[in-house]
Structures are given as C-alpha cells and as structure tokens.
Specification:
Length: about 575
Amino acid sequence: MLEKMVEAFDGEKVIEQFEEMTRDAERVQKETLKKILEENGSAEYLQNLGLNGRTDPQSFKDCVPLVYHEDLESYIQRIADGASSPILTGKPIKTISLSSGTTQGRPKLIPFNDELLETTMQIYRTSFAFRNKEFPIRNGKALQFIYSSKQFKTKGGLAAGTATTNVYRSAKFKSTMKTIQSQCCSPDEVIFGPDFHQSLYCHLLCGLIFRDEVQFVFSTFAHSIVHAFRTFELVWEELCGDIRDGVLSSRVTALSIRTAMSKILKPNPELADLIYQKCAGLSNWYGLIPELFPNAQYIYGIMTGSMEPYLKKLRHYAGHLPLMSADYGSSEGWVGANVNPMLPPEMATFVVLPNIGYFEFIPLKENSQDQEQEGDGGAIVAKENKPVGLTEVKVGEVYEIIVTNVAGLYRYRLGDVVKVMGFHNATPELKFMCRSNLLLSINIDKNTEKDLQLAVEAAGNVLAAEKLEVVEFTSHVDLSREPGHYVIFWEISGEAKGEVLGECCNCLDRAFLDAGYMSSRKVNAIGALELRVVGKGTFHKIMNHYLSLGAAVSQYKTPRCVSPANTTVLQILCANVVKSYFSTAF
C-alpha cells in the first residue's frame, strides 16, 4: 500500500520552490516567525515574557531573551515529566530528543515534534534535488551505515531517543527515502538492531549482496563511514565466507537480525570469489569503495567541522568517487542545505532555508580584543554587538547563530560559529567554522576545535613520513599542577619510534599559533604540551561508554576536549596511555 502512496520525486519543482523562497527571504522569515508565535502563543514561556499576541520581529527581540540550553532545562524537564499544560509550545510535545552528549559529557533533552520532522524532510528533499542534478540516481539502493538506539519512556510517558532515532523510526522518513530513491540496502531489523557491531557487520554484508544496485554510500557522519571500512579490512574474509555458504556468521547473535538476514543471504560462491579477488588485488585498500560497489556515484555524509580529520582516510577508501558533504544542522534542528554539492567538503557552504525557523546572527570579530568569555560553556561573544537578521548579515563576516524553531526553542544559542561566504538569492551561504565554546584555555590563550584540528594535522605529517596515521585524537587541559598545560591524546595506526613521537609533540606545541598561547608558553605561564599515545581501541571504548548512556552511533562524535568533570572518559584515556612525551619546543 505504501508503494502506491509514494509520489514520484519532482526535483525541478523542489528547486523552483527553493529558488522562489530564497528570493524573498526577508518576507518568508517574518511569516515564519509570525506562524511560530501564533501557534505557540498560549505557551507559558512566551506568556510570561509579555508578548501579548505580538508577532513582529522587533517586539519578539524586545521581549524574548537570548538563551542557552541550561536556561530552558527546567521547562523541558517539566515536559518530560508529563506536565499537561502548554509550556514551550501550544500543542503538547510527545517526543524528546537526546543530543549525543559528547560536548558536555551528558545528553541534553530537546523537544521534538512533527513540525520539526517535516523541516528535516524538507532539507533532505532540497539537497537531494540539487545533488540529483549532478548525479542522477536511478532505481537502486543506498549503502547506509545508519543505526538507531532504543527509544525509552520518560517519567511522564513521553517517547525519548536520539534525534536520529526519532527521525529513522518515523513513517515519514521511510516514505521520503523511498521518494528520493535512497532506500537502505539493509532491513529495518539491522538498522534497529540491539548491538551496533552486529548491525555494522550486516550493513556491510547487505551492501555486498546488493553491490551492483548501490548508487551511493551514506552515513550521518564521515567518521562512521571510515569506521565501517576500517572494520571491513578486518572482517572481509568472514563476509566472503558468509556469502559463499549462505550462512550468517556466528558473531551475529541477535535473533531479529538473523531472521531478517536469512531472507536475504543465499549461497553465492561466484559473488564471494569476485569480492575476494577484488580485495586481494587492492594496494593498501586504496579505492576500496568503488571496487566493491561499481555503480556507486558518490560518498555522502556530514564532513565539515569535527569530521574534517577523517577526510584523508575517507578519500583513500573512495578513490575517484567524489565526497559530498551533507546538510547543516544539529539535534535542535536544521539550519541549511548543501545546494552546491560539487564543492569539496573543506569548501562546503550551506544555504539557510528561511521557512524552517527564524534565524538571527551575533556578529563576532575574529581575534578581536572586544571578545569576552561568558557563561558556563565559555562561549566567545561580542557583548556590544546586537544580533542581526538573516538578510542583514555581511559577506566575509563571522557570526554566532541564534535559532527560533518550530519545537519550542526561542532565540536559542546553538553554539556554532559560521562565516558568510556569499548569498544564494537573498539568503546567506554559511560555512561552518567551529563551536563557539573555547576548547583549550588556561589563562589568556584561546584555542578552538579548528585550532586543535590544524595542530594535529601539522603533527600528523611528521607521522605520515613513517607511513603511520592518527586514527583518533582528543585533548584535555591539565590543571593538576602549576603551571597548567595542554594534553593531547593520540591513537595511532601502528608503532612509532620515540624520537618521531617526540618531534610530533614539539610540532603540536608549535602549531598552536594563538598569540596568548605562544606568549604564555615562552614565559612558562603555560607548561609544556604533553602528547599521550593510547593503545589501540581506546577511542572505541569511549564510544561504547557513550552508547551505554543512550547515545546512537548515528549521532556520536568523538569529544575533542575532555573536561575534568568528564571523569569516566578521562579514566578510560589515562588507563590506556602507553607512551607519554613532553614538548621541548619552547
């Protein structure tokens, strides 16, 4: 019945509607805000702020304060606990999303509703329409490394799960994926399986079974694709054995998955031999993805920000296939679509859809003396600068994003810093720069996630000369003794000589170019940077820790800075240190 209900996808119509909307972005923004405030005017939060039915942007800004998540926690907790009165929205919130929890060490609760789901589908349809112009997808499948964690009930009986889980479990997601010809190779039982490792193994197996039908490879984040093919390197012979005999490996114990896979997996010695020959003929697994999936046209997933360190390895697996960065959003909702899919991920920009929320931007000046540290998150904010509207931003300027969405978040500080690279009609094209939270800071030093990433890349070049690579990394500010110092944790792909790692450590220290850091190091106000090399599989243990807290693999991001309060992750890291080096660069 569902197949008959699904309409054919009209990419040209989607693009036409997008172009029309972005040409009149200011009007669309005003209408979007008006609609949000009218639909939620009865909510306690807005009632208490004295809007009194006004829906214009100026009254909204005059009455409603800028907020961080912690300012709304008590309201969201009451919703989760089952309060029946309208608190943040006019209509009752029936579902709660959980953030990945890797930023603050614990998941945030975020309201989720059908309206927010619809904005997600709009983003998917829009970016697919532009992507499909360049690489038309015909009747085929997508090898999607997607995973859903379990939903649970809150104290008040609301369904709660990660944002990706809430999306993947919806009928609207399935129908949209069918419409845009992005159906997953794997059955639902694999996606919703109880064990990530078993699901990953079966995703790979399903991809191989349907290898000629695979049109593209996708996961929410680039690191999930890299992790999948690193795993493939270890289990490829076992996968070939399963295909040859038509019998699923004993490593898969979940009955639901085994039952579903039994309907797909049949003995196929010819396919097993072909895959074996393909793998045996590769040099260091270069070009693995197109070799396995000859009709795949591209690799797709979020590849910006904290995903950039994985691009080198992903390109190695991808060979000649282009990498396309997926859209820009967060657990709180979406911001923009990638309508220029041919740009490499490092240059990806995202066009804000003016009808999915109301957007404001706080102007920031890079390296400005006017910036101050504020709030628990240590966010960089320019206090004297008032937020400007979507159509008022300027090309080349840097901003912090403020979001008002359809699910009860009003003037919410998303915590992202973006740069305006240009305009698509009247709406800006944004480049994600970094999280606004300062990752590493001891006194006057200010180093962001991007600074850390660049330092690791520079030091990684020293390692690359030895044919080794940084598999994963994170950081920590150690204030246990005076003076405090930066600690960088590395997991690397093999054994490295002590003198090589010592040079890597010095290179890391020199690569932090922030003036406050360099001057502090020279006078020993900040101690020598420390590089701690951890054993193989350490970061996998960290991921398993977050999964045990309810995070989904689809949403998981390696925390790039571990705070002292995040004791469990620190304990995992410190317990697995195999070598330690202190910089002699200053």
